[in-house]
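Hi there,

I know you've been waiting on this one. I reran it after we fixed the sequence typo, so this is the corrected version. Both the input and the resulting structure follow.
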Amino acid sequence: MTEVSLDASPEVLAATEGGEVAEYFALMKPRVMLLVVFTALVGLVAAPGHMHPVLAIAALVCIAVGAGAAGALNMWYDADIDARMARTAARPVPKGRISPDEARTFGAVLAVGSVICMGLMLNWLAAGLLALTIAFYVFVYTMWLKRRTPQNIVIGGAAGAVPPMIGWAAATGTVSLESFVMFLIIFMWTPPHFWALALVRVRDYERAGVPMMPVVRGEDETRRQILIYSLILAPLGCVPALLGLGGGFYTVAAGFLGAFFVMFAYACYTERTGPEAERAAKNLFAYSVLYLFLLFAALLVEQGFGLSHSSIPLLWTS
């Protein structure tokens, strides 16, 4: 399909309307949506009590649709930035496969629908958290922080950290310290994860005028910040065991995963020039995704099979 410029005439843009289903699915950022749903599932399963499977599926669908809505609205608003970055230039809006108006309408409908369905089928606390997450990602991160401050990822990362709390609230109608700790883990994971990518794509962000940390503060400072956040994240990943959410298996897994995270972060910190520096940043970025998945997978396995009853404090007293 021929690329259509963002400055194309109304007639040309009109010809792009009615994009294929696959293009609308791409608008929802499916890879991000998958991670959101997975962490929400862990929050839902880890919550006390039992939830009807149909309601659990309904909650996860609402969360997935809400995450997709946020992604679509982000792509609508950031179409000008996406068009100038190699990593994002092929997205549906800058490519002209879906018009900006279509993307905005699609995202808004999904957002309203997901929140209303969550409230009607589950509870309004979970619906409120979902609405807050979408609004924070779109209005605070996308429209305000992303183009103005190198702390965009730090503050904006709160939106991606809420899903476990939404899952917990959907199951219990409440939030708790346990769900907040899961939030904190993702919140502290987000900066080293995205800054590792920013080190690799720094020229992209410079060209697009996005003030990511390596663009504004420099690559050396970014590596230092990555290491600091990683040193906080590693022990934080073990805290669920102290709260009874995780047992011996989770604690061992969290310890090893956190140690490897620090190892990759330290390699990124020490390798500062040449292809080795880029390779270290790429390795950290790839591992960070694996880290979060495996950490929450360990929690899910223990909760799903009831293994968390053998928590570390109990092992110490045995």
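Quick highlight: The CA atoms of residues 192 and 228 lie 9 Å apart.

Best,
R. S.
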